[in-house]
Amino acid sequence: MSQMDPETSAAGEVPRVVGDPEGAGPAATGGAGADPAAGTGPDATEGAGTPGAPDAAAGGRGPLYADGGAGASAEPGGEDEYDHAPSSADLAEEDNMAASLLADLQRLQAEYVNYKKRVDRDRELIRTNAVSSVVEALLPVLDDIYFARQAGDLADGPFAAIADKLEETLGRFGIERVGEVGEEFDPNVHEALMHVEAEVPEGATDTTVVQVFQPGYRNGERLVRAARVSVADPA
Fold first, then answer.
1. What pLDDT score does 71 carry?
2. Which of 34, 143, 156, 157 has the fewest CB atoms within 10 Å, measured from its CB?
3. Counting Cβ atoms within 10 Å, is residue 23 exposed (0-12), middle (13-18) or buried (19+)?
4. Which residues are bridge partners to 214 per DSSP?
5. Distances (CA, A) of 187 to 18, 19, 100
6. How far apart are CA 109 and CA 116, in angstroms?
7. Could you tell me if 16 and 8 are in contact, meaning their C-beta atoms sit under 8 angstroms apart?
8. Could you tell me where the DSSP H helices lie in the chain?
């Protein structure tokens, strides 16, 4: 506890508190007696300002929409500018863009459909040409088989079985033999080498094939070789 100095108190001087540091006091320490105007207030601290403001020294970005930036409502649950209905000009622009994109999509779809049709048609044409080329190479063999059957040499035996399998295999690829006796003459599949007077099958009303010199072959709608025949007219 601080004590008074008895020598000074008796003389009527101002007592000095023993134990207090010399020069101590509110004015010396700058504590509670300091001038309130000095070093206080919003201007005393640098960087103090509105919360959420960008820090220029740190290179920060402006407040986002979620943080109350541009477009956000100041009232909780209030309307934002982005919640407002779009204008007529915006709607017209979006409609034009949608129509343009739809037109592009339809054009691409049409191009794809045409491309697919063209590829399928070309694939079928390539297949038909390949099969027809094979048949053209086998025509001499097929002619020998035909005339051997006409002569009765392929009634039975191993060679007859081979011939049957060959013709059956060609049939699976769409190969068809044309030109038979009794058929009505068709210039699209028949080549008339002779026009004779001969008996025609009963009931025939038009020019008829009466003899086949060389059979023809057809691959689907494509004629590989016309049948060479002799024809006669009905009486």
1. 53
2. 156
3. exposed
4. 228
5. 147, 144, 55
6. 11
7. yes
8. 6-10, 26-29, 88-151, 158-172
